Automatic annotation (TrEMBL):
Name of this protein: Inositol monophosphatase family protein
Keywords associated with the record: Hydrolase, Magnesium, Metal-binding
InterPro entries, per database record: Inositol_monoP_metal-BS (IPR020583), Inositol_monophosphatase-like (IPR000760)
MF terms (GO), sorted A to Z: inositol monophosphate 1-phosphatase activity; metal ion binding
Species: Vagococcus intermedius
Residues that coordinate or bind Mg(2+): E68, D86, I88, D89, D208
PANTHER family: INOSITOL MONOPHOSPHATASE, INOSITOL-1-MONOPHOSPHATASE-RELATED
GO biological processes: inositol metabolic process; signal transduction
Coiled coil: none
PROSITE patterns given in the database record: IMP_1
Length: 253
């Protein structure tokens, strides 16, 4: 019951934040570069992260918070309860397309994922998962994902990984029916859960994959690094999220 109450509370925060985000789309955005010209941050990213942090601080004052924009804590380990926030995942899409972006949030206890939320705002599609309650796409429970091979479906690959053939991904992509590049980790993971894509490959920060890690574990989907490092939620790593049958073909470099 406690986890159910927390789920409903977080869903309320997400829907409230989404209304703010949609309203901000009609206003001029303040945009700044982070690491490069395609890695951007807006005033809305920062405002939404601050919004979630206030909600968490007001209701769970003893918890740690790891946020993409750095407004939370300097999290060095995942002892006790840690919240992971990506206020706007797919910021470049948010700026240029005003769609194909999402907001994401996860809750971990002593390093174990308990709750994960991926909300694609412009389609009103909320994917969430809980170890106790299962996985849901809006109100529909997802029991299992078809375990299809690449030969029968699509693979979504980060642009840099594909163009530079990191980890031999061009060869792997040739086995799929086609390649897609969505520019949003949350939506890419959601497409795997929905059975629309069989794999997603990208370099990801903890806030990019923490919610999906919870959901994938609930469904028996595979989430692993391509370089043999552990998914310890402390640094950026190359990741493939896929059906189990695709994961069997992956050779860690």
């Amino acid at each position: 019951m406690v986890q159910r109450e927390m789920v409903e509370e977080i869903k309320g925060w997400i829907y409230e934040a989404s209304e703010v985000i949609k309203a901000k789309l009609a206003m001029p955005l303040e945009v700044a570069e982070k690491e490069n010209r395609s890695d951007l941050v807006t005033n809305v990213d920062q405002e939404i992260e601050a919004f979630f942090i206030k909600k968490i601080r007001d209701n769970y004052p003893n918890d740690q918070i790891l946020g993409e924009e750095g407004l939370g804590d300097q999290v060095t380990d995942f002892k006790n309860r840690v919240w992971v926030i990506d206020p706007i995942d797919g910021t470049l899409n948010f700026i240029k397309q005003q769609e194909n972006f999402c907001t994401m949030l996860a809750v971990y206890e002593d390093g174990v994922g308990q709750l994960g939320f991926i909300y694609e705002i412009m389609t009103d599609e909320l994917l969430w998962g809980s170890k106790e309650l299962g996985v849901y796409l809006n109100e529909k429970e997802i029991i299992e994902v078809p375990n299809k091979p690449l030969e029968e479906g699509l693979i979504n690959i980060n642009t840099s990984i594909f163009l530079n053939n990191h980890f031999g991904m061009q060869e792997l992509a040739m086995e799929a029916l086609a390649v897609r590049m969505l520019g949003c980790a949350g939506i890419a993971f959601k497409e795997v859960v929905k059975g629309h894509h069989q794999a997603y490959v990208s370099y990801l920060q903890p806030w990019d994959y923490a919610p999906a890690k919870v959901i994938f574990e609930c469904l028996g989907l595979s989430l692993q690094t391509l370089n043999g490092e552990s998914l310890d939620l402390t640094k950026k790593v190359p990741i493939i999220g896929s059906t189990p049958i695709v994961a069997e073909k992956i050779t860690v470099k």
